Amino acid sequence: MLELPYISPSNLSGFGSYNSMKDIDTLISNNALWSKMLVEEDPGFFETLTHAQNPRFLWIGCSDSRVPAERLTGLEPGELFVHRNVANLVIHTDLNCLSVVQYAVDVLEVEHIIICGHYGCGGVQAAIENKEQGLIDNWLLHIRDIWFKHSSLLGEMPQERRMDTLCELNVMEQVYNLGHSTIMRSAWKRGQKVTIHGWAYGIHDGLLRDLDVTATSRETLEQRYRQGLSNLSQKHSNHK
């Protein structure tokens, strides 16, 4: 496997300090360096990419710049199909997200769909605080609905744990939403082997956590969703 270079500030000698990047041309310069390093490692790398993409994974994650999907999973260009939005939501009226999912499932035939939230999510926090933010308030209403749905569990928790738990609940609800989409129902009905996973990423330690709501069919979706909620409730009881 080709190891992609990480372009740290020390790699950018001649291109200016990372902290003082104010000129958009710096990004073009960084790209030229990145491309050069890859070609030196594997001269045919980009030629291979031009033929087709064949990812096995679809990643649905948060837009937060601290959660770089390819880097934290150690995957190369062409190996991960990605959709990102604020707070990693899967909404049945969001044609952008659903178009990505349909293309990934029906055309690319990915084997795994990963819905990944992260602790300390600004979208989740904004939904809890319920302050007026503008247009995004309409988007965050979906998280507010999750808050109200699980208020009996969340209301008993201290603030920090409440935030983390709502981040996890949000992922579980999005797994459930995706599993009930017409795209996934059709795929599973025709016997296509595609699995939905729910993960949470810790920005504080760089680790991914499996929330154990993995679904391979409509039946397992219901079972794992209910079990996941039970596990969260039990986890809270153990912390009392």
From TrEMBL:
Domain of life: Bacteria
Pfam families: Pro_CA (PF00484)
Cofactor: Zn(2+)
Span of the signal peptide: none
Cofactor note: Binds 1 zinc ion per subunit.
Keyword Nucleotide-binding assigned: no
Keywords, comma-separated and alphabetical: Lyase, Metal-binding, Zinc
EC numbers, comma separated: 4.2.1.1
Classification via PROSITE patterns: PROK_CO2_ANHYDRASE_1 (PS00704), PROK_CO2_ANHYDRASE_2 (PS00705)
GO molecular function per UniProt: carbonate dehydratase activity; zinc ion binding
Catalytic activity: hydrogencarbonate + H(+) = CO2 + H2O
InterPro entries hit by this protein: Carbonic_anhydrase (IPR001765), Carbonic_anhydrase_CS (IPR015892), Carbonic_anhydrase_sf (IPR036874)
Residues that coordinate or bind Zn(2+): 62, 64, 118, 121
CDD domains membership: beta_CA_cladeA
Gene Ontology biological-process entries: carbon utilization
Function comment: Reversible hydration of carbon dioxide.
Family from the record: Belongs to the beta-class carbonic anhydrase family.
Name the UniProt record assigns to this protein: Carbonic anhydrase
